[in-house]
Specification:
Elements lengths: L2 E8 L5 E8 L2 H21 L3 H8 L1 H27 L1
């Protein structure tokens, strides 16, 4: 789960401020690394403008890819938020 740790720190002038340190667990890092690697290979293979041409040529498949992306992103965002609210 995506965790955040708060740390109370002080400026040189003596003023207090709160630092938010975000921590990732291994599962989130693995999923984000896989998705960014896939996008990097796809961009390198298909070239510039492939997203626009994909959407115009195959709208049903593009909608399916969008739903898949939402399905991957939801567990990475909603579950940590729900855990933080408990």
């Amino acid at each position: 789960a995506l965790l955040a740790r708060l740390q109370l720190s002080y400026h040189e002038s003596g003023e207090q401020y709160i630092r938010v340190m975000i921590e990732f667990e291994g599962h989130e890092v693995a999923v984000l690394g896989t998705v960014t690697g896939f996008l990097g290979v796809t961009n390198a293979t298909l070239g510039k403008g492939w997203v626009k041409s994909f959407i115009h040529r195959q709208p049903v498949a593009a909608f399916s890819v969008m739903l898949c992306g939402i399905g991957v992103i939801l567990p990475l965002t909603v579950v940590p938020i729900l855990r933080a609210l408990k």
